[in-house]
Structures
1.
Amino acid sequence: MRGPGTTADDTPARAFAALVDQVQACRRCPRMDERARVLSAANGREGARVLFVAEAPGRLGAERTRVPLQGDQTGRNFEALLASIGLDRAEVFITNAVLCNPQDAFGRNSPPTREEVARCARHLESTLDVIAPEVVVTLGRVALEALRHIEDHAFTLALDVGQRREWAGRVLIPMYHPGARARVHRPLERQLEDFRELARVLGRTLQHSV
C-alpha cells in the first residue's frame, strides 16, 4: 500500500513533505477550492503508533486553526478523551477522511459527499504509508467508510465500535466522532471505554480520568 509520490528510498520526513505539497496543490473538489488543506507538521509526527481519522475539518476548528480537531468544542472533547488514557497530541497523528472543510451554500459545515471522500482517499492512503501507524482509529461513520477506498472491509460503526479489528495489516478500532451530537448514540462513559480499549492495545497503564 504505497501512495503516489513515495518510494522505498524516501525518508519519512521527505516523503511527508512531498505529500503535504501534493495536498496543498490539490484542486480536485470544486467547492473546496478556497478552503484550507489541513495537512502539515501540525497534524502530528511521523512514526506515531496511532493515527486517528476524523471526518473533515470543522469551520470553527481546523479550517481556522489549520490543526485537525482543535479550536472548537469537538477538539476539546477529543483532547479530553486522549488525556483520559494519558495520551497527548505529540504522541499521535490526526487527519481526516476529507482534508478540506465542506460547507453548504450558507457557509455552514456540511457532510462531505461520497465523491469527495473517494477523491481524498488517495491522500489518506499516502498518509498511512508515510506515517506507518500500528493502530488506526476511525472517528465516525464517514472515516470508517473512507478506509474502504484503500482496502475493503465489512465493518460498521454499530457492530464494531470500540472493538479491535484487523485491517490492512494494522489494528483498527472504530469509534464515534467526538462531536457533541455523537453522544446521543454513544454516551461519554462508553466513549471513555473505547479509549480504554485503545490504551490496552498500546499496553498503557491507565492513570488518568476525565
2.
Amino acid sequence: MHVRRKLIVGNWKMNGGIAALGEVAAVAEAARGAAGAEVAICPPFTLLAAAVTRAGGLVAIGGQDCHWDDSGAHTGSVSAAMLREAGARLVIVGHSERRAEQGETDSLVRSKAERALAYGLQAIVCVGESEAERQAGRAAERVSGQLAGSLPDPGGEGELVVAYEPIWAIGTGRTATPADVAGIHSAIRRSLLDRFGDSGGRIRILYGGSVNSGNAAELFAVPDVDGALVGGASLTAAQFVPIVEAAAHS
C-alpha cells in the first residue's frame, strides 16, 4: 500500500494583484505548522515570480497553464521552461474552464502535461464531468475517457497528479457527496493502476469543486482523496489555512 502525502493546491484563477501577495506570505507562515501536507498556490502569471519570493520555499508556487512548445510564435502563452525559470514547481493543465473557454482537447492537455514533466514540474491534470453527464449515469465513463486521452506516459522528472473536479461543483457552492467522490476516485485509481501498474498507486488524486473549511475534513477522509484543488477559498489565508490544517491532520 502506498502512503501518499496530502497535497493542497490553491488555484487563484484570474484573481489577485500585488496586494494579494500578503496572502501568500500568510499561508507560507501557516505551512510551517502543517508538516503533514504539501501546500501550493497558483497565482496569475503576473504574480508568479514575486509569489515565489514571498513563499520563502514553504509553499510551492505554480502556473495555471503552460504551452506545449518550449518557445515560438505563441502570443500570450507561457512555456513550462519559462515557469520553471520563474521558480514554479507545478502547473495545472486541462482545467475545465480552459477546456470549455479555449476549446482544449484531451490530446492538447496531454501535450502540455508532457512538457511540464519534461521540465521537472508537477503536472496537475484535471478531469471532470458535466451535470448532464452525471445525471445520465456517464460520470465515470466521461472521466475515464479524459484520463485515457489526457495523461502522458511516464517521462521527465516531474510528478503526475490527477485532479477530479466535477464541472457542476466548480464555483457553485455545491459539493459532490462523499459517496460520489469515493466512486469516481476509486474509478480513477483503477484506471491509473490498469495503465501504470504499481506506479499508478503512487499518483495523487485531488478533489476540487467548492472545497472549503466546512467540508474539507469530510472529503479528506474519503479513500483515494489525496488532497484538494481549491478555487475561491484559496484567495485568502483566512479561508485557505483551515483547509491546509484539515489535510495535515487527516
